Amino acid sequence: MTQESLPGNRIRVWHRPMRPRDSAEHHRVATPLELLFDLCFVVAVGQAASNLHHQLAEGHVGHGVAGFALVFFAVWWGWLNFSWFASAFDTDDVPYRLATLVQIAGGLTVAAGVGKAFDGDFRVMVIGYVLMRMAMVTQWLRAARSVPECRSTALRYAAGITLCQVLWIAWLALSGPAEYVVFGVLAVCELAVPLVAERRVGTPWHPHHIAERYGLFTLIVLGETVLSATTAVQEGVTEGEHTGELVGLAAAGLVLVFAMWWLYFDQPGHARLVRRPSLLTTMSWGYGHYLIFASAAAVGAGLELAVDFDTHHTELSGTVTALFVTVPVALFLLSVWLLHIGPTNECRPIAIGFPVAAVLVLAASFGPAPIHVTAVLAAALVAVTVIATHGEPRPA
Question: What region does 255 belong to: left with phi over 0, alpha with psi -120 to 50, or beta?
Fold first, then answer.
């Protein structure tokens, strides 16, 4: 029987003092609660990608892209804030778990409001978002009370988040173009909260743990992309027509997702966080993943749109349809290059290969079989990375 299970120590089972985690802790891995958090949040990612696909298929390109960017920001920002807080202060007691479950409930409410958000009604999504963020405020207030050395940082987080939520509620009164302009302003305010809060005393997050958390979410988003594309192909095959084109498209999509997985995980994600642990580097790495996550999710919507094109269920041209696959893939390659590789990487074939591949992918949009060519280019970049690093010691 462990000490925590003894009757005299029962208090420790449901409540522990919130203390900073050791940023050099060995074998720090994601907890089951963090995995549940990811799985629930990917529901919102799937809803965002699905609605993007429907908007594009109906020809509402500008509206669909703008709606996707807005919705994805709400999902990503809620996930990011929880992940970094958990890396620094996870106590895994009852109050912590309950606050996290409230955040999950907020994330699922956001997911429930995604469809209406694409139609211009953001009320349900904002309710879920505010619920999720105010639960995060309770965590920061608890940290402020329990961790004297981080009290000022935690209080700045709590105050900044609360102020932003008041502004989001007021934002619901807007409509028209001003709605999108003010959204951008409020998003910048949200992004500024960690920069202001951590300018003096930073939180003790764990580099390897953070890199694993980001990697796990990347895996889940790629899995959602595979699911979206597979469902679309299945629906097309069920109709009994265009089977050859759909099988080829499915193969190309699968190769593309495999290559995206390989390229993201080829370089250890924590390397830049360990080498340059400055606030600017940390924030640029953490914030930059918005582009990686969003582009990976958008690839799934693009592949669904390609199925619609092959089965004549969309009025979009072949070139426009291709762009909704090639642009997200190019953005994914450039984002991984900037965050994991870097233009000054000592391995020149890799440092040059990523941006060159991104340019070629965009160019493929205007040629024959653009998605198949994109898959070949992505696979070729994988081959370049394997050959270029053959025999090289893997960074720690």
Answer: alpha
What's the DSSP call for residue 391? T
Task: Give tens-digit pLDDT for 36-62.
Answer: 999 999 999 999 999 999 999 999 999
* One-letter-per-residue 3-state SS of 144-182: HHHCHHHHHHHHHHHHHHHHHHHHHHHHCCCCCHHHHHH
Contacts of residue 193, Cβ cutoff 8 Å, sequence gap at least 6: 156, 157, 160, 161, 164
Maximum Cα–Cα distance across the chain: 73
pLDDT tens-digit series, residues 259-309: 999 999 987 776 777 766 677 888 889 999 999 999 999 999 999 999 999
Question: What distances in angstroms separate CA 251 from CA 254, 316, 330, 372, 380, one per listed residue?
Answer: 5, 22, 19, 9, 16
Q: What is the DSSP letter of 338?
A: I
CB 30 within 8 A of CB 92: no
Report whether 144 contacts 155 (CB < 8 A).
yes
Residue 22 and residue 203: Cα distance in Å, rounded?
A: 11
Angle, CA of 302, 305 and 309, to the nearest 5° = 135
Task: Find tokens 């426009």 and name the residue.
Answer: 320
Quick one: which of 161, 154, 160, 162 has its CA closest to 201? 154
